[in-house]
Amino acid sequence: MRLLERDDTGGVRLTEDLPNNKIPPYAILSHTWGPEEVLFKDMTDGTGKNKAGYAKIRFCGDQAWRDGLKFFWVDTCCIDKSDSAELQHALNSMFHWYRSAVKCYVYLADVSTHQHGHGPGWQPAFRESRWFSRGWTLQELIAPTIVEFFSKEGERLGDKESLEQEIHDITGIPRKAFQGVPLSDFSVAERMRWIEKRDTTREEDKVYSLFGIFDVHMPVLYGEGRQKALKRLQDKVHEDYLCLAKLWPTDPRDPHVEKERIELAKGGLLADAYRWVF
Questions:
Q1: How many CA atoms, within 13 angstroms, populate the side-chain half-sphere of residue 181?
Q2: Record's PANTHER family (predicted)?
Q3: Phi-psi group of 223: left, alpha or beta (phi > 0 → left; psi -120 to 50 → alpha; rest → beta)
Q4: What pLDDT is attached to residue 12?
Q5: pLDDT tens string 98-131
């Protein structure tokens, strides 16, 4: 995982690709892509500051700094998308990266807190925000423990807990899904419905953005189309379900009887294999 590091003067640099056991505490950004996003190449060649999208990077770094975090992650520039192996790994790791973040900052570019006169405030724009209609933001809403929402001016609007009812009304996702309840408690059909009204730029991403929602890892094959991608996902989910269903529990009160039953039924066991199972 590659992170951005902010120094005490406000400067930002990319770290090297860090192994899992060397990743420091970090914040993570959730947003919708717009014009002039800062890409990996822009950060490495030093031209990123000249793009409009750098404002979001500065916002995330400054907010993380105020929260006592010097490292943060932004999808536009922390992934080298020209490296297919890195992109595959990133898309399959995204849910875990968001879940592992200390805080997730949602930057809503279409919600303003600067109202003139006696208008209705930012709430109507919040309900209509494009962020709630994008595919990848589904897991970015559910995975992190702490999700904080900010206006385009960088003003805090609330968090996933204080805005829980509003988010439920907008998305239709059950409130307990925001409260850390295991996603396996929700049926496959119910979780599939969460993505129905969301869109992605590339049609396959509407399926790939569900990897973390179903706790699966799959190859990313852009060009296969949404239907083929969906079929592969459904097959993988079914395969994993059948695998778990075959792990029948034994009676903890008398494991020796169960061991003897298995040995008789199977004609003996491989050396030490049953010890590992029990």
A1: 11
A2: HET DOMAIN-CONTAINING PROTEIN (PTHR10622), HET-DOMAIN-CONTAINING PROTEIN (PTHR10622:SF11)
A3: left
A4: 95
A5: 999 999 999 999 999 986 556 678 999 999 999 9
